[in-house]
Design goal:
Blueprint lengths: L16 E3 L5 E6 L5 E6 L2 H17 L10 H13 L4 H14 L14 H13 L4 H20 L27 H15 L3 H12 L3 H5 L6 E2 L4 E4 L2 E4 L5 E4 L8 E4 L2 H14 L26 H17 L10 H14 L4 H8 L4 H6 L6 H12 L1
Antiparallel strand pairs: 1-2, 2-3, 4-5, 5-8, 6-7
Helix pairs in contact: 2-3, 2-5, 6-7, 7-9, 7-11
Amino acid sequence: MATRRKDYKGHVLNAGESQRKNLTYQYRYTDANGERKTVYAKDLTALRAKEEDIQKASDRGTNYAEGNATVLETLRNYTRKRADDTRYTTQVNMGFVLQAAAKYPLASMAIRNVRVSHAKDFCRQMVKSGYSFWSVKRVKCNLHKSFQAAVDDGILLRNPFDFKLDFLLVKPGKRTAMTTAEQQKMLQFLHEKYEGTEYLDLFVILLGTGLRVSELAGLTFKDIDFQNRTIHVERQLMRKEGFQLYCEPPKTEAGYRFVSISSDVADSLHNVISRRGVLPVEPLVDGHSGFLFINKNGNPKVALHFEQELQRMVKAYNRSHEEPMCPISPHVLRHTFCTNMINMGMKPKNVQYLMGHSSVTITLDIYTDSSPSEAHEEMLSLLG
């Protein structure tokens, strides 16, 4: 009968177990893919706990060894696979997610050890560090997708990030639309002080179309149909680091759309075209030319230009009024347009189309505002 191997303390070693020269222990086994793997431990008790985990993983059909990858490694692998088929802005977003996740202890944990409690604590830590609800949601969403890939590959049994964020004390910041009174005050001010200028026309166009600011920047002459009073949205104009301009498709398939325009918006577009005139050299970006909005250097304007112009309008208003105007951005005007259309009785699905939303839920839950007084007035009108 063969003599069973023992460690230096006289403990009998099982098949696959051995003690190394530095007195630590190792266990060698063949995984589900037929590959030889090794795990290590400081003592025999810890080694056999790992052997038990390996057996449980095998019984469940999951891969113990690949579960040793850290959260950050798994997230990097997920983002790396997506990098080649995603737009530049999405790649920037992934960079933010990786940087944010790397700051916390969860990043160095083996994915097989992550529990729901760890994932929720991670979200709480982000909030405590000052991240907004939407930033936490963005990071959590990408972690959920990266862990789900591990579940789908049989590495994990379940996804620890499969939960909602309603347990967080911080509330999502509501995107606030301008009130009817604020819209009227700002329009009156712009007509009085900036009649015939780009400031008034920019405000009127954004408020009257609900375009994303990158869609506004991407408009060219051929996108405007004055006869049928429509704008054809089919691209966004963006800027990379280093001031390199590029065009990309709308945010979603629903972003390709025709937006009807009022006579006021049509007049403002005519003003923009008239002021623009004919350039000595038309800028060309990814095969597109004839951009409507041009800066003083003869280059197409991008989001930052429009945001700064709106900020200057608000500052000018506040200098001449005791009651300050609410902050105004291109997105606030987009939000306001959506709310106005809903309040005027437009069908939600039609508003969804005009906004270029992929889901009507986005249109109703995020981009529309109501107030107790408005709800009260509408209820009274319905009741007669």
